[in-house]
Design brief:
The chain is mostly helical and about 120 residues long. It has helices at about 1-15, 20-50, 55-70, 75-85, 90-115.
């Protein structure tokens, strides 16, 4: 939140102390894209090379939870494990980090932009 605030504040200061919500959103989303890409690349490297056992632990825990429940047939467990394998791949996890960062960045930028907005009277 501090990084978004600082980035939008710097833009506002360089723009004659004026800021629209749209401009605040643009600056905030630019920050979110950079942060999201960094997080996604790090997550991919982390789950592919540094700590790939984490994904195995997630899959094992999911399997244990499904079998302990005794409400699922073997076909349902197999189907659910296929989906679990898809969503716990390093690429899928990195993509989800990127999307979550973009979504939260949008919300934070929108709030900060709305709070800091100041319309330029010459453009009104």
């Amino acid at each position: 939140v501090v990084i978004y605030y600082y980035g939008i504040k710097v833009f506002k200061d360089k723009n004659g102390n004026y800021l629209t919500i749209k401009e605040g959103l643009k600056v905030g989303m630019a920050i979110a894209v950079v942060a999201g890409v960094i997080c996604a690349v790090y997550a991919y490297i982390h789950y592919s090379f540094i700590y790939p056992e984490f994904i195995d632990k997630i899959r094992e825990q999911a399997y244990n939870d499904m079998t302990a429940n005794n409400n699922m047939s073997n076909a349902q467990i197999e189907s659910a494990m296929e989906m679990t394998n898809i969503f716990t791949s390093p690429f899928a996890m990195a993509t989800s980090f990127l999307l979550i960062t973009l979504f939260t960045g949008f919300i934070i930028s929108l709030i900060i932009g709305a709070i800091m907005k100041k319309q330029d009277p010459s453009k009104a």
